[in-house]
Amino acid sequence: MKTNLLTGVREYLDRLRSFEVDARRFLYSEAAYRFGRTVFRTLFNLYLLSMGYSMAFIGVFNSIRIFSRCVGSIPSGVLGNKVGLRNALIAGDLVITAAAAIQITGLGPTVLLLAAGLEGFGVAFRLVNRPAFLTQRSTKEQRNHLFSIRSVVYNVIGMIGSGLGGFIPVIIAVQLGLQVGAPSAYRWTLFLSLFVMIAGAAILLLVNKRTDAAAKAAPQSPLENIKEALQEKALRPILVAESFLGFGVGLYIPILNAYLDEYLGATSSQIGMIFSGRRLVGAVAVLFAPVLAGKIGKMKTICSLQAACAPFVTALGLTSSLTIAGIIMPIRRSFMNMAGPIRRAFTMEVFSEERRVSAYSVVTTANNLFRAISTLIGALLMEALHPSSPFLMASIVYIISAFVLWKAFADEDLETYAEQQPSRSRQCDRVAS
């Protein structure tokens, strides 16, 4: 037993050491970007509350932010094919940073909502092109581990960012003689986070450019991009499952920090610690995801973890105790974190290489469209009906999403999916002959 465990650990570490240089540089960039981004996202809803904006406005703001991801997803796939995945990621980071700078200035609700749309468009660049970039810079044997380590970086650095993000405004307020929770204290912290995000984009410049098969025959317009994606056999069930998943996530995640503040009475430092704790637990849990997928299979791993998340989401909505919420959130996070990288790696593998970016851009569009709709619904339900209602609805939707994936792929030979797709290059060869 001990020998098997040591062998497994050695194999895991060997797989990590085999990552190519560009993959490692991306992880460094991701760490810097994630730190700045987590500080920003942890505090920005609280900043809006301190400025006197309502929960309903915060819901609209986040809905627009997420809806613009949807609008930008397919053009982002086209851009990634045309200028390269690395350049598309850099462009996304710069757009996000510019939008965040505009939001911090607080020039009024109209400017805030416009900046939310700009931010979402930049996030689309990252969401669409990042999985394809990781797939491009890894072998099949490395892929589950690279996606999982990216998730570990996301969560560990996010944990640090959440923790420090909750305390920095307090420190600034004390040093400047401001009231704790004053808008100026939040504003200074948000500005500091932007410099770290810019550093993350700068590190990406060290990543080598690479052209792949998809870029050589890239669709020339968003419409062609959609037509390419629709040729994928696996697209429809994944599209439906991701739509349900996006709807469930959007119901409560974008306004979770505001929920803790408004309904459970949490301070910014408490919110920072809770978010930090859930990221730590999620980071540890995700390390076991490749091992679990290797033991029981990717689809069983994805569906079982996603369904197991549902009762904890329900409990989170029903509790009136901040302590219990602080215990539940890391457990929920660990299940979703373990499922996430395996789900994304699986999605990349079942799509053919030449349509990978095109198909994933359509999937991302669907996820973000339903997430944008549900973010507004969640905020309105929380304010008009009952604070627990978005959580209860999300639990049901998570289970539906897992069922759709299981129904579609549980009995399929997943290795043959991408091979069954008609290749553009093979089609061109047949025409030429």
Q: How would you concisely characterize the structure shown here?
A:
By secondary structure, this protein is mainly alpha-helical.
Give an overview in words.
There is one protein chain. The protein is an all-alpha fold and 433 residues long. It has a single domain, classed as Up-down Bundle (Growth Hormone, Chain: A), CATH 1.20.1250. Helices cover 83% and strands 0% of the residues. It has 19 helices and no strands. The chain has helices at residues 2-17, 21-50, 55-83, 85-105, 109-136, 140-176, 183-204, 213-216, 222-229, 235-250, 256-263, 268-286, 289-296, 298-318, 322-350, 356-384, 389-409, 417-420, 424-432. The model is unreliable at 422-433 (pLDDT under 50).
Topology at a glance:
Layout lengths: L1 H16 L3 H30 L4 H29 L1 H21 L3 H28 L3 H37 L6 H22 L8 H4 L5 H8 L5 H16 L5 H8 L4 H19 L2 H8 L1 H21 L3 H29 L5 H29 L4 H21 L7 H4 L3 H9 L1
Helix pairs in contact: 2-6, 2-7, 3-4, 3-5, 3-16, 4-5, 4-7, 5-16, 6-7, 6-12, 6-15, 9-16, 10-16, 10-17, 12-15, 13-14, 14-15, 14-17
Q: What is the H level of CATH, i.e. the homologous superfamily?
A: MFS general substrate transporter like domains
% residues in beta strands? under 5%
Q: Main sheet, how many strands, which sense, barrel?
A: none
**Which topology does CATH recognise?**
Growth Hormone, Chain: A
Domains counted in the coordinates: how many?
Answer: 1
In total, the number of strands is: 0
For the structure shown, list the relevant keywords:
433 residues, mainly alpha, Growth Hormone, Chain: A, 19 helices, 83% helix
